[in-house]
Amino acid sequence: MTLFADPQKGRFVKRLNRFAIECMIDGIIVRAHLPNPGRLWELLLPGRTVYLTRQKGVGNRKTEYTAVAVERDETPIVLHTHRTNDAVKWLIEKRALHGLEDCEIVKPEATVGHSRFDFLLTRNGKPLLLEVKSCTLFGNTIAMFPDAITARGRKHLRELADLSRGGTETAVAFLCHWKRARWFLPDYHTDFDFARTVLESRNHVLMKPIAVEWSDTLSLSPQTRELFIPWDLIESEARDRGSYLIMLHLPSDMSVTVGKRGMVHFQKGYYIYVGSARKNLTQRVQRHLRRRKSFHWHIDYLREHADRCTALPVRSSTSLEHDLAAAVSAVADWSVPGFGSSDCSCDSHLFGMLQNPIENKRFIDLLLEFRINRLEKQL
Fold it and tell me: Are residues 210 and 109 both part of a single domain?
């Protein structure tokens, strides 16, 4: 099945906002619509090959181009979330959606109560409501969803579980655009509440993560693989504890008074702070993100002067803080000696980078390793 006519290739330059990117085609910078509001940090790295379609006369849109896929390891990953339903429709018709091979499509976009679900199916003469999610986050062999907080996804899961308790069959298909995937987990690092909702709904909603393969012409293969969900691992790891990274940006050089340490000079650039919380991790990182608070940790003093601040939790059942600090140190351009490490043997827990870490492949690989790939040893 081919969803996109005559895609052409370009090079990713930068993301402008949630729904727009800049690409280079034949040496010319063009703006492209991005039909995917996810973070996509692991995919949209500078220089990556992107697949673009072009449509002239697109009304009020600022660009004729649409970014529909991006390459990772020479494999195209489809980004167009709106076309994911078309792919699922085709797979259902081909009897290629595992666990739903005996279903027939009644209609797309079925409204029940105040919510709309992607498909109304029928199986053995009974209705089945199906919701579809596009999964573009994965490590080597583990796929995760979502890559950004999804209140809508959580709401849909709860509603499907309620409908199931009332006697209506319900299901969610997670379409993973990575043929090498073998396992699927909810991304409890990024959206802890969604992960807990998945666990709460597992006995009521049929969950089917499916790996698919796209060719370099963006044709979808009918060969699919159902991914295994390691429920015991999710139960043990999806707890509100673990380590975290706080990413900050200082717009200029400055000297800052840091508690008893006194005055510390910081050069402008990006900073990554490594911390941990044995419990209430969500509360801890939210506190770090706030500006106005009583100062307690070293990072509190620096936060007051940062113009940008992002938290990246790494939830785990074991302590990773020191390993994480060592790994960040290896990719950083400099460190601030003794910062945040007074209670351990680490030289520092604050590291600086000239480049935005989100645009640095080595940092993204580090994030994938600690959040996803290390779990392979437990499977």
Answer: yes
Say how many domains are in the chain: 3
Specify burial of residue 107 (Cβ count, 10 A radius: 0-12, 13-18, 19+). exposed
Q: Residues 345, 354: contact at Cβ < 8 Å?
A: no
What is the CATH classification number for the domain harbouring 207?
3.40.1350.60
For residues 168 and 266, state if they share a domain.
no
Instruction: Please report whether residue 1 resides in a domain.
Output: no
What is the rounded CA–CA span in Å between residue 9 and residue 25? 7
E strand or H helix at 265? strand 263-266
Q: How far apart are CA 354 and CA 190, in angstroms?
A: 25
Tokens for 89, please give them: 């429709």
Task: Assess whether 190 and 246 both reside in one domain.
Answer: no
Half-sphere exposure of 254 (CA within 13 A, CB side): 16
In a domain, 2, yes or no: no
Per-residue pLDDT reduced to its tens digit, 120-158: 999 999 999 999 999 999 999 999 999 999 999 999 999
Claim to verify: residue 156 and residue 221 sit in the same structural domain: yes
Residue linked to tokens 């008074």? 257
Residue pair 148/39 in contact (Cβ under 8 Å)? The answer is yes
Flag whether 76 is in a domain.
Answer: no
Domain presence at residue 315: yes
| Number of Cβ within a 10 Å radius of residue 101 | 12
Q: Averaged over 295-315, what is the pLDDT? A: 92
3-state SS class at 284: helix
Q: Which pLDDT does position 314 carry in this prediction?
A: 98
Cα separation, 174 vs 137, in Å, equals 11
Please state, as a whole number, how many other Cβ atoms lie within 10 Å of the Cβ of residue 76. Answer: 23
Measured CA to CA, the distance from residue 201 to residue 58 in angstroms comes to: 41
8-state DSSP, 229:
-
* Parallel/antiparallel/unpaired status of strands 254-257 and 28-33: unpaired
Asked whether the beta carbons of 213 and 223 are under 8 A apart, the reply is yes
Angle at 141 between CA 140 and CA 144, to 5 degrees: 95
- Residue 249 belongs to what domain range? 242-378
